[in-house]
Amino acid sequence: MKLDKKDLLLYAVTDRSWLDGETLESAVEKALKGGATFMQIREKELDAEKFLEEAKKIKELCKKYHVPFVVNDNVDIAIAVDADGVHVGQNDMEAGNVRELIGRDKILGVSVQTVEQAVLAEKRGADYLGVGAVFPTGSKADADYVSRDTLKEIYEAVNIPVVAIGGINRENIMELSGSGICGVAVISAIFAQTDIEKAAAELKKLSEKIVKA
């Protein structure tokens, strides 16, 4: 699957800590109905069997809505469910090794915080970059803060699409206007909301505004 940068407009990352009795599948479907254009399943606590089971369900949903589906960090699970790709951080498997394992036709996303990391990730085969945290975030306690200037410098240093991540919500998203990003990646701004579908729809509209800015 070749990545179209328009697919990165509203990038949703799952988080089961917000489910409150709901299934992950149901929460993801609401986000897709609301307009999420890209989906990453992120499971740091699940065992492999349960993770595989969840990934299969989410993959089918994404297929139904024609939205790319990637797996965070776990290359084995991504290959097992034939996901559209994998997203890795700086402390996960090195991007070049991931590319060798998943092949040329899968999507590879890499989290970066600096221009150096960004340039290297592109060289090693990344299709897009997740840059952040652009705002303080509760989802990753150890997330390094990336300034708006650095975000713009990263965008200018690479030829692949850049997505901002980290603490982005309805209130602060417009601050990212003019940074060159082609979308935003969010977790709690969608999955922690009482009306997931509505939250996704609102964020998509706002993301369209900043991308055009």
From TrEMBL:
A Pfam family recorded for this sequence: TMP-TENI
Binding site for 4-amino-2-methyl-5-(diphosphooxymethyl)pyrimidine: Q40, I41, R42, E43, K44, N72, S111, K140
Annotated GO CC locations: cytoplasm
GO molecular function, a single term: magnesium ion binding
Binding site for Mg(2+): D73, D92
HAMAP family reported for this sequence: TMP_synthase
Enzyme Commission number(s): 2.5.1.3
Details of cofactor binding: Binds 1 Mg(2+) ion per subunit.
GO BP, one annotated term: thiamine biosynthetic process
Residues reported in the UniProt entry to bind 2-[(2R,5Z)-2-carboxy-4-methylthiazol-5(2H)-ylidene]ethyl phosphate: T137, G138, S139, G167, I187, S188
Sequence similarity: Belongs to the thiamine-phosphate synthase family.
Cofactor section: Mg(2+)
SUPFAM superfamilies according to UniProt: Thiamin phosphate synthase
Classification via Gene3D superfamilies: Aldolase class I
Known function: Condenses 4-methyl-5-(beta-hydroxyethyl)thiazole monophosphate (THZ-P) and 2-methyl-4-amino-5-hydroxymethyl pyrimidine pyrophosphate (HMP-PP) to form thiamine monophosphate (TMP).
PANTHER family in UniProt: THIAMINE-PHOSPHATE PYROPHOSPHORYLASE (PTHR20857), THIAMINE-PHOSPHATE SYNTHASE (PTHR20857:SF15)
Entry protein name: Thiamine-phosphate synthase
Pathway of action: Cofactor biosynthesis; thiamine diphosphate biosynthesis; thiamine phosphate from 4-amino-2-methyl-5-diphosphomethylpyrimidine and 4-methyl-5-(2-phosphoethyl)-thiazole: step 1/1
Thiamine phosphate synthase/TenI domain location: 10-190
Catalytic reactions of this protein: 2-[(2R,5Z)-2-carboxy-4-methylthiazol-5(2H)-ylidene]ethyl phosphate + 4-amino-2-methyl-5-(diphosphooxymethyl)pyrimidine + 2 H(+) = thiamine phosphate + CO2 + diphosphate; 2-(2-carboxy-4-methylthiazol-5-yl)ethyl phosphate + 4-amino-2-methyl-5-(diphosphooxymethyl)pyrimidine + 2 H(+) = thiamine phosphate + CO2 + diphosphate; 4-methyl-5-(2-phosphooxyethyl)-thiazole + 4-amino-2-methyl-5-(diphosphooxymethyl)pyrimidine + H(+) = thiamine phosphate + diphosphate
Keyword Metal-binding: yes
